[in-house]
From TrEMBL:
Pfam families: rve, SH3_retrovirus. GO terms for molecular function: nucleic acid binding. It comes from Acer saccharum (Sugar maple). This is Integrase catalytic domain-containing protein. It comes from the Eukaryota. Residues 269-284 have a biased composition (Polar residues).
Amino acid sequence: MTKRSFSAKGARATECLGLIHIDVCGPMSIQARGGYEYFITFTDDYSRFGYVYLMRHKSDAFDMFKAFKAEVENQLEKHIKILRSDRGGEYLSGEFQQYLIDNGIVSQFSAPGTPQQNGVAERRNRTLLDMVRSMLSYSTLSISFWGYALQTATYILNDVPSKSVPKTPHELWTGRKPSLQHLRIFGCPAHVLKGKTEKMESRSETCIFVGYPKETKGYYFYSPSDLKVFVLTNAKFLEKDYMNNFVPRSRIVLNEMSGDTIPREVTQHNPIVSSDPTQDQQPTIPCRSGRVRTQPE
C-alpha cells in the first residue's frame, strides 16, 4: 500500500494569536556560542510573524513557550487561542498540557506520520536554516555563531514581504510598516569606537557585525581581539569593500541530528565547538587591498 499524498489545507486564522505554530529543532551538529544546541520557533498563522529562542536542552521548550506567551499577549493585548505542534514529547507532557488547559488554549497535534499538518513551522525552520548556512558562508565567523545568524534571519523574515500574507509580517503584527534602512550585511566588518584609549592608540577597532539586539536600538558586534560580543549604536560598516573582496565558503555543514550521537562525517570535519569564547576560532577580517580565501568547512 502506498502512502497517499497530503494536499489538504486548514483554515487560516483571522487575527493575530488566533493560531500559533510551534516547532523544536535540534540537537544541532555544532553547538552555538553559549552552549545552545536547540532552538524553538513560534509562528503566528495570521501574520506569519515569527519568534525564535535558543535552548540548551529540549526540555526548555515549556519555559520558552511561557516566556513567549507572556510577551506577545502583553504586547498585543490578546490571548493565544490555538497552539499547533507535532507529537513531540516536549508538548505531550502533563505539565505542558495542563498549562494550556488552565489558560484556555486549544492544543492541536499533527497526525502520526503526517508532518505536513504542521507544515508552517516545518517550512519556517527549513527556511531559517537555509538562510543561516548562506549567511555563515559569506562570513569569516566560525559555525558556532549560528545562533546569532538564526536570530538575524528571523528578524529579516519578519520585515520582508511574504507570499503567504498580503503585507509584511511586521506590519500585520504591529500595524506599522517596517524600516529597512538600518539593515546590514551579516558578518561584514565595521569600524567601531573603542572606550578609553591611550593617546597614541587607535581610537577605533575593526569588529564584525553579528546581529540586532532585541533589548535596545543598535547592533551586535564581535571583537576578534578580545573574543566578545557587545552592543553599539554607531559604526562605519565596510559592506562594499567586504562584498567586493570576499570569496564565500563553498559549504557550511550545519544539520539537525536525528540521534543522540554526532554522525561520523560531522564529527570528523566539524567537531562541536565549545561555548567558551576563548576556544572559538578567531575570524579573519578581509583587507581592502586583496581577497581573503578560506578553506571550505
